[in-house]
Design brief:
The chain is an alpha/beta fold and 499 residues long. It folds into 2 domains: 300 residues, FAD/NAD(P)-binding domain; 148 residues, FAD/NAD(P)-binding domain (3-Layer(bba) Sandwich). 32% of the residues lie in helices and 17% in strands. The protein is built from 15 helices and 20 strands. Strands 1, 2, 3, 4, 5, 6, 17 and 18 form an 8-stranded mixed sheet that branches. It has a 5-stranded parallel sheet with strand order 7-16-8-9-12, with no helix packed on it. A 3-stranded antiparallel sheet has the order 13-14-15, with no helix packed on it. A hairpin with a 4-residue loop joins β14 and β15.
């Protein structure tokens, strides 16, 4: 435990980077296994990761609450079928307290550099507050942590506020203002309906139309919450039911022809709120549903139908001192610019400061196309477990399920190394190649690679390096029933040479 250590003792068996869903899952499971020799390095001043940072109006989860939570920490008190951001953040804070993880967390400690010391068989982690050392590292930085704001001509001259939805200022006042929103992704369709009633004018710059389906959210009654509290098995049944329903969606992603049925439902959903045929044409995508992230909302289309909203079907080309200019050359006078342009997922920031066995960074190894073995380990990066790594993103269900699976796989690999009496575990290069080839074969014919769109799922080489191409129970089976021969279990090589 940290409080039992000397202030200068910064060597741990396990270092966890990030206190979001992934990092906290690793910390809790370590503690449940009786392991207390670990530290969590968190760059922010609170736990929660993306659920701490994203505080924009209307921020909520797209997966039902009972599934978007830890299997080992069920919450009977969810107030809504789809939880809003404050409830999810409170849940993570509560888990941190109940499992006594807070004493292991070092807040305001951003990792600046990590490199593997083969001589000592450990990772050396550089921060502004000094170095930490760990035999094993759980990298829980996530893929949706660093906002992406495009470089647009003239932004530095704009006189009003400019911000990303993930950095929403607590003191911003949009009432009566003319607002420009750039992007129509998962964040924008949540905050646009919230700000539309209070702004004077809203210009929504949409480069590509998105498919939007009904959300179907509802409040969970007090009687239902009480039933879940009194009968935990009832809640487990509800969770399993949601899981099964969502796994059925994966069939559609794998067989694009099935998506035509869902597309018809999405079009009916649009037509129910949008009566203007010109606006309908602007909002109708020209690719198969599922190629990009499917968006869920009950109030997005009604908001766009309001007279103070103008959908501009283009990207933002230029910013002036008091306005914005689209590709059509028309200038719109605005007071505020909000970017809902997503995150840096194609060039993951952490890949540039993690250096492996031959002192080469992940970014240099990946060359714009992230690859790994089960999304968790990368060859030549020993004892490093990526959480939310390559090809683990989901288009149909809860990412928490994948994170728990990755943590459990890492714990089993560590346990096997300890059983063998060695200190190092590493993904085999050939096993990694075979795995990537298998993933690529599974992706063939799926909606993610054949549906005619450009999405953030695709890397710089045109490969889908983000999405898991099958059912989550298939991933869990492959990850937890790993073949030991696909990994190298050994002592640090320089220790072998000196023996």
């Amino acid at each position: 435990m940290l409080d039992a250590r000397s202030p200068n003792d910064r060597s741990f068996k396990v270092v966890i980077v990030g206190a979001g869903f992934g990092g906290l899952a690793a910390a809790i499971r370590l503690k449940q296994k009786g392991e207390h020799d670990f530290v969590v390095l968190e760059r922010g001043d609170d736990v929660g990761g993306v659920w701490r940072d994203n505080r924009y109006p209307g921020c909520a989860c797209d997966v039902q609450s009972h599934l978007y939570s830890y299997s080992f920490a069920p919450n009977s008190s969810w107030n809504y079928q789809f939880s809003p951001q404050p409830e999810i953040l409170d849940y993570l804070r509560r888990c941190t307290q109940e499992f006594r993880i807070l004493e292991h967390i070092q807040f305001n400690t951003a990792v600046q550099r990590m490199y593997w010391s083969e001589e000592h068989g450990e990772w050396i982690i550089g921060t502004a507050h000094g170095e930490y050392r760990g035999r094993y590292v759980f990298a829980g930085m996530g893929a949706l942590s660093d906002p992406k704001i495009p470089a647009i001509e003239g932004m530095s001259h704009f006189k009003g506020p400019i911000f990303h939805s993930a950095q929403w200022p607590s003191d911003v006042n949009l009432e009566g203002k003319a607002v420009c929103v750039v992007g129509t992704g998962a964040s924008a369709i949540q905050f646009v309906p919230r700000i539309q009633p209070i702004v004077s004018t809203l210009y929504l710059f949409q480069r590509t139309a998105a498919w939007v389906v009904k959300r179907g959210d509802f409040a969970i009654t007090r009687n239902t919450r009480e039933r879940f509290r009194r009968f935990p098995w009832w809640q487990r049944c509800a969770r399993f039911s949601i899981y099964v329903q969502r796994e059925l969606l994966a069939f559609g992603f794998r067989h694009p022809i099935v998506m035509r049925v869902v597309q018809m439902q999405a079009i009916r959903h649009m037509h129910a709120s949008i009566k203007d045929t010109v606006l309908r044409r602007k909002l109708t995508p020209h690719y198969t549903l599922g190629c990009k992230r499917v968006l869920v909302s009950d109030d997005y289309y009604p908001a766009l139908a309001q007279p103070n909203v103008h959908v501009v079907p283009s990207g933002l080309e230029r910013v002036t001192e008091d306005g914005v200019v689209g590709s059509d050359g028309v200038e719109h006078k605005v007071d505020v610019i909000i970017f809902g342009t997503g995150f840096q997922v194609q060039d993951l920031p952490y890949s540039h400061y993690i250096y492996g066995r031959d002192n080469t960074s992940l970014a240099d190894v990946w060359q714009g196309s992230p690859r790994s073995l089960t999304g968790t380990m990368v060859s030549d990066f020993p004892n490093l477990f990526l959480l939310h790594g390559p090809n683990t993103v989901l288009g149909h269900t809860s990412m928490v399920y994948m994170l728990e699976t990755q943590v459990e796989q890492a714990l089993r690999l560590i346990r096997r190394a300890e059983t063998l009496g060695v200190a190092v575990v590493e993904a085999g290069a050939e096993a990694q190649k075979r795995y990537i080839a298998w993933v690529d074969r599974k992706l063939r014919g799926t909606v993610w690679v054949t549906a005619g769109c450009k999405s953030w799922y695709m890397d710089k080489t045109g490969r889908n390096a983000s999405i898991w191409p099958s059912y989550t129970f298939v991933y869990r089976s492959r990850a937890l029933n790993f073949r030991p021969e696909d990994y190298e279990f050994r002592q640090p090589s320089k220790q072998d040479e000196s023996a």
